[in-house]
Amino acid sequence: MGSNQKDVGILAMEIYFPPTCVQQEALEAHVGVSKGKYTIGLGQDCLAFCSELEDVISMSLTAVTSLLEKYGVDPKQIGRLEVGSETVIDKSKSIKTFLMQIFEECDNTDIEGVDSTNACYGGTAALFNVVNWVESSSWDGRYGLVVCTDSAVYAEGPARPTGGAAAIAMLIGPDAPIAFESKFRGSHMSHVYDFYKPNLASEYPVVDGKLSQTCYLMALDSCYKRLCAKYEKIQGKQFSLSDADYFVFHSPYNKLVQKSFARLCFIDFLRNASSVDEASKAKLAPFSALSSEESYASRDLEKASQTVAKSLYDEKVQPTTLIPKQVGNMYTASLYAAFASLLHNKNSSLDGKRVIMFSYGSGLSSTMFSFRLREGSHPFSLSNIATVMDVARKLESRHEVTPEKFVETMQLMEHRYGGKDFVTSKDRSLIPSGTFYLTQVDSMYRRFYSKKAGNETTTADNGTLLNGH
Ligand SMILES: CC(C)(COP(=O)(O)OP(=O)(O)OC[C@H]1O[C@@H](n2cnc3c(N)ncnc32)[C@H](O)[C@@H]1OP(=O)(O)O)[C@@H](O)C(=O)NCCC(=O)NCCS
Fold first, then answer.
1. For the chain, which residues make up each domain, given as ranges?
2. Which of 86, 132, 200, 267 is deepest in the core (most CB within 10 A)?
3. Spacing of C-alpha 409 from chain mean position
4. Measured from the CB, is residue 34 less than 6 Å from ligand 1?
5. How do residues 90-119 score in pLDDT, each as one tens digit?
6. In this protein, which residues make up the domain named Hydroxymethylglutaryl-coenzyme A synthase C-terminal (predicted)?
7. Could you tell me if 375 and 382 are in contact, meaning their C-beta atoms sit under 8 angstroms apart?
8. Residue 43 in contact with residue 253, Cβ under 8 Å?
C-alpha cells in the first residue's frame, strides 16, 4: 500500500443520460434555420435534456448506484469521491455531499473529496485529483470514484442546439484496463471570456461562440505541442498522430471535433512529422507561411486540412463520436462520453492501444493526456465496461419529444431555476426503473429525491425516498 502504484486509471465506468430527447432535424425546422445547419453544419443528430424530474444530482445518484451495483463494488470500499460539474444548483453545498446519501446508508462517511468547477474541464480536474490520490502516500488502499455530471442548456438562439445532458461515473484504482501514461501530458491555461456564467439568477451561460471555437483550437495546438515535446524528451523520438490509435476530444458539437483533428494534421505538417505523406504535404504547403492568427481564420486551410485528415479521422476519431452526436454537449461528461463511445464501438480490439484525450473548459483550462488500454480481467475489463454501459440499448430506448415540448420544458426549468416550494410531476412513465428523480424542493430550498422502483409501472409514488435527513 502507499505510493508507487502501477497502472493507475479507470477500472469501471457507467453512463446515464436522460431518456427524453429531441431530433436536431426537427429543431432546425421548428426554429426555422436552413435545413442541415444543425445536422451537417454542427454535425449533431439528437439532443438529450432533463425533464423537470431530473437534474445533475439525480443523474449522478443514478450513475453511481448503478456502477456500484453492476460491478459488485461495496460502497464501503470507496475512499475518495470527486465530482466535476459546471451546473450550479447550490453555491456552497457540493454535489458530492448529495451523493454521500448512498454511502451513509452503509456507514461509510470516511470519503475525501468535493466538487471541481471550470466549465467542461471540472471532470478532468476531478479525475486527476483522484488518480493523484491513488498514486500518493495518503492512499489507503480503497477505490476512488469520479463523477462528471452536467445539464447543458442555452437560451433561445444559435447556441441552443449545442445543449445536452449526462452523468458519468468512473471507478479509479491501480492495475486498471484504462491506465494513465502520466508523463505524457500537456496543459494550457489562460484568462479569456469565451463562455462563462456570470448571471447567478440564470442557468444559461453568456457565450461568444466564435471566440470559443478559436480558444478551443489555440488550446489544442498548445497542449498538443507540449505533449509532443514531453514525449520526445522522454522517448528520444518524435511524437506524431501515428503514435496513437485513437484521439478523443471534448465535444461541444461534432463539427468542432472534425476541425480539431484536421488542425492536429496541420500541426504535424508544420512539425514535419512522418504522419504526413507527400500528397498531403503538397495540399498544405500553400499555408505554411501563415501566422497562427491567420491560420485560425483561414477557411481554405480549414478545408484543405479536413480533406487531408479525412481517412485518418474515420479511423482514429469517428469511433469516438457516437454518444456526443446523439446526446449533445454534456459539458464535463462530454470527453468521457466520447471515450465511452470508443469502448462501445471497439471494445474487443482495444488491447494495447494508446488513446489521446483532449479536455477543454472555457475560461480557460485545457489538458491533453494519454491512456494505455489493456483488456483487463472481469469485472474490470474493457469488454465488461462496454456491456455494463449498454450504450446501444440506452440510446434506442429513449423517447423523442417534439421541439414544442422541448421548448416548453426549457421554459418551465427557467421558471424553476433557483426556486423553492414546488413538487414535480407524478408522471414518471418516461424514466427507466432504477433511476433517481427529483420529487420536491421545500420551503427551505432542500431537494428531495426518490429512486424509481424496479416494478413500478404506474405513476404511483412508491419509490425509495432519499431525503437527506
Ligand atoms: C457553434 C455556434 C457558434 C454556431 O452558431 P452559428 O454562428 O449560428 O452557426 P454558423 O452560422 O457558424 O453555422 C455553423 C456551421 O454550420 C454550417 N451551416 C450553416 N447552415 C448550413 C446548412 N444549411 N447546411 C450545412 N451546413 C450549414 C456553417 O457553414 C457553419 O459551418 P463552419 O463552422 O464549418 O463554418 C453556436 O452554436 C454556439 O455558440 N454554440 C456554443 C458554443 C460552444 O459550445 N462553445 C464551447 C466550445 S468549448
1. 9-452
2. 86
3. 23
4. yes
5. 999 999 999 999 999 999 999 999 999 999
6. 178-452
7. yes
8. yes
